[in-house]
Every structure is written in C-alpha cells, then in structure tokens.
Amino acid sequence: MMRMRMKKAAVPKAPMGMSGSAAKDVGDSIDWEVRPGGMLVQRRDPAVDQESAPCPKIKVRVTYGSSLHEVSVSMQATFGELKKLLAPETGLEPQDQKIIFRGKERDGKDFLDLAGVKDKSKIVLMEDPMSREKKYIEMRKNAKIERASRAIADVSLEVDKLAAQLSSLEALIVKGKRVAENGLVELIEMFMRQLVKLDSIPADGDAKLQRRMQVRRVQKYVETLDVLKVRNATQNSSSQQPVVVTTKWETFES
Predict the structure, then answer these.
(1) Pairing state of beta strands 104-105 and 97-101?
(2) Facing residues of 100 across strands?
(3) Fewest CB atoms within 10 Å of the CB: 130, 154, 228, 248?
(4) Bridge partners for 63 per DSSP
C-alpha cells in the first residue's frame, strides 16, 4: 500500500480563523496517506489508535497448509499483530511467518484495513523458507551433538568399569602386595583404547566439553597405573629409590 509524506498536495482546510501562514504550517506538519480508493487522509498513529475507542473486530480466514483457521482481530490491527494471534494456532513464531493477501506478501507494519482486509477475507499463511532452512540446520546440529553425547556416555561407562579394576589393583599394591605386571599393562592398554574411541568422536559445543573431560579422566588413570607399575616392580625392595613416572600427552588433548 502506497504511503507518503505530502508537502505539496491538496489537504483538508485549516480551522476557520487561522491565518494563511499558520494554516500552511499545520498542513506541512501532518503526515498524509492515500487509501485504496484514492482518498487522502491523515496518516494513522498506532499509539494513538490504541488509546482511542475500541475498533470493531473482524474475522479473517487464514489457510496454513491443509488447515483453516478463523481468527478474530481488530480491523485496524497490523499484519504483525495478526501474526502474533496466529502463533499459538499454527505453532509458527511470528518471525517465521509469511502472510500472503491478494497475491502479495504483507509487511508486519502494514494495517489490515488499509490493505483491504475485511470481514471473512481469506489470507494465506506460509512458513518462511529461510526460517525452515535454519530449523533444518539447527536440527542436524542438535542430532550430531546428541549422537556424540551418547557415544561419549558409552565410553564413560566403560571407563567406570576399568576404574573399578584399577581401584582393586591399587588397594593390593598399597598394602604391599605384588600383582602380575601383565594385569597392569593390559589395563593400561584398555584405557588407551578408550582414548582412541574418544578421539574418533566428532563433537561440538557441550559434547566437546564432555569429551575433553573424559579424555583428561582417562589420562589421569593411565598416569596412576604408570606409578603403580613402578611401585609394584620395586615392591619388597626398600633399597631402591622411588621413581616418579610422568606421561606426556600430545595426541588426545582436544
């Protein structure tokens, strides 16, 4: 709908008794708009309209896909206000809606009556293609994070079982008992396999943080096993100086 600010146009006459210059100033300070029938009227101020007397309501028929919705709305409402009314009915947020009336997409700031919307008028509602694409991308991203989280949770469960074995071996060694070195070596290898699994999981966002936490957890267990190996080997040999083993991690810091 065409709206314009008219400075050189025939406007309604100024109130009687007003001088020519004053009348001209009043005319220049008023915003005018052309209605569908060609009538020149003062441009409407939505804030003032809300404070004025309630405007009669109309019922419009909105088609969305295979659904038909009949919505009661003020005849002087905007298409943006209509979108808000349609949100709970259709499940589409106002910013995701695209309203078509008389073959044209309507801006949210346009008024219904100025666009020619009347009682029982038919309006077509569509989902904005850009919004649909964004939702699809977001859905794929969430699905990827969910898959990563499940994979990390599976590894965490395996690490819990290995940690229980580590605790049992540690308790024996701390008490001064020697355990089979092969058992310690095999446990280290099993922990390392879990590190490889974690390293192969593509992760973003929260899932990436979860993976990093599990990586550091496994690294700590491996370092503990290295120390236990040394202590187990020197068990019952008090003359030998204790050895501290530090594992350098490069591949799995992510």
Answers:
(1) antiparallel
(2) 105, 124
(3) 248
(4) 68, 124
